[in-house]
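Progress narrative, work stream C.
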Amino acid sequence: MGFIAWIIVGLIAGFLASQLMGKGGYGVVGDVIVGLIGAVIGGFLVRLFVPDFDFSTNNMGAFIASIVVAVIGAIVLIFLVRTLTKGRTSV
């Protein structure tokens, strides 16, 4: 996938993960960042548990699979961030 496609995947994944985890999103830029980092985490998890999975095909199925994997990774990221910053107060 090209750079623009990864930005789109990141935006969609970050938005969906933010909505699924509740408490609203992180804004457009924040959702893209969460989605892109989530894609990396999700890709690592998929390669760890399903080593034969192939994202390299250029079709809609691979695009949707990339979004699903990125959403799962973004949910893991949001969960970790919220767990690690649970007791903190803002100044």
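Work stream C, second folded protein:
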Amino acid sequence: MPAFLTLDDLDVRGKRVLVRADLNVPMKDGKVSDATRLERLAPTIDELARKGARVILLSHFGRPEGKPVPRYSLEPLVPALARTLGGRKVAFAHDCVGPEAKAAAARLGDGEVALLENLRFEPGEEANDPAFARALASLGELYVDDAFSCAHRAHASVAALAQLLPAAAGRLMEAELGYLAQALEAPARPLAALVGGAKVSTKLELLGNLVAKVDLLIIGGGMANTFLAAQGIEVGRSLAERDLAATASAILARAAARNCTILLPTDAVVAAGLEAGAASRTVAIGSVPAEAMILDIGPETAAALAARIAQCRTLVWNGPLGAFETPPFDAGTNAVARAAAALTKAGKLVSIAGGGDTVAALHHAGVAEDFSYVSTAGGAFLEWLEGRELPGVAALEAAAKA
């Protein structure tokens, strides 16, 4: 597991603490429509405030491309953030490094919280500009990174800032890294990975890394069609990257050499097109009609996957098994997710999931709360599974050594 400092290592009383958060939350009609990321952040803010810190929140929102764009202001988040913090007052500054930010930081008393304006209103943020990082650092005395979902970005508030102040991980970052280490660095075995989604091309590095680490690799969604087609199995009009047949075959060969079992669907739910309530039927793989599309795994496959997962001790899940957003093509993902959740609740499985579509699929199945851990990160979760170094994590490790 990465070696970094945590809140337990900081004396925060009376200190201005810069907290890198990820407040890039869904909005509708000017209000927060999903407060999950705020709720995950709240324990770190609450703990710091209880310990007498003067908390200064830093975050990006959207892609304003280095200039102020009113619709990307963080100010509309203040009421939802205050509610999530149990009614605690949250001050707001209309800049992140200018006079108002400095005044807001200076006004804070022990246990008080301020939110600064969108970091990406400044071009120095995404450029990882040292001068911008120094301007941020001048506002605080300590730095806490609680935005694992941004850890894959070498931006000023993620990478450079951690080198300028004593730096530690917040509770959310600590939990994310702990569970991911448990999943891939020292897992209880057998270790299974379930990888779904549309395209193999977006997850080549992930699959290449996983076959060297896991005992069982389940491939679903449109990705499975590419692997089936690579073996000469007809998949009709299904989404498949036929030009990646050689790549898929190489992954299958590498898995065999590493004693990693790859499971692909043995039956599928097919239809003429992806429409809610479309007429569908279940066919055996190998009997997909030329005019049909594979849109979900079949019940035989779902039962087989559940049985194999039951033989494992750890499961890492990234991507749905079918077009779960469109019933009836959610049945396969729902069935396997519920089986994994039941095993987790029974204490037989450590289950770790992440990625935007994955989180949505688990909520759709009604089991997101029953998994051991569901990561709020998308790109960072994927890059960790790919075995890449994350700049935000590397910065915390370097800070701990310093």
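The chain has two domains: 7-174+390-401, 187-371. No further action is required on this item.
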